[in-house]
Amino acid sequence: MRILVICGAGASSTFVAQRVRHAAHDRGLDYTAFAGTEQSLPIDLDAADVVLVGPHLAHALDRIERHAAARGTTVVLLPDDVFNDIDGTRTLALVLGAVGTSGGTVPTAGNAT
């Protein structure tokens, strides 16, 4: 699964992406996570199965969801305290809850049956 984390400038999303990637790896999940910005979203969406939206972008959530829906991509608004999730496990749990799984292989827009 490919997880895109977006924020305003890309700095805080880089930390969240790194943490969720490590948490997935620790669980043996073949997930990737990468950071993007609100401006790079239209391009980055093509490479994402899930978009994690920084809490400070809540005002843009409807627009982000519209763009993502056109590609079959799941969107999750991150909680205000996401940056306190030092090991990424809580953020990973949000991803897993959004896609309806506890881990393993997740059907993506590109390989759904």
Overall pLDDT, averaged?
Answer: 86
Number of domains: 1
Percent of residues in helices comes to: 25-40%
Stretches where pLDDT is under 50 for at least 5 consecutive residues are: 104-113
CATH architectural name = 3-Layer(aba) Sandwich
Given helix and strand content, the structural type is alpha/beta
H/I helix tally: 4
CATH class equals Alpha Beta
Question: Biggest β-sheet: count, sense, barrel?
Answer: 4 strands, parallel
* CATH superfamily membership: Response regulator
CATH fold category name: Rossmann fold
In total, the number of strands is 4
- How are the strands of the biggest sheet laid out side by side? 2-1-3-4
| Spatial separation of the terminal alpha carbons | 15 Å
Strand/helix succession: EHEHEHEH
Over all CA atoms, what is the radius of gyration?
Answer: 13 Å
Per the principal axes of the C-alpha atoms, what is the gross shape? Answer: globular
Percent strand: 15-25%
Structure description:
35% of the residues lie in helices and 18% in strands. It is an alpha/beta fold and 113 residues long. It has one domain (2-99): Rossmann fold (3-Layer(aba) Sandwich). β3, α3 and β4 form a beta-alpha-beta unit. The radius of gyration is 13 Å and the shape is globular. The model is unreliable at 104-113 (pLDDT under 50).
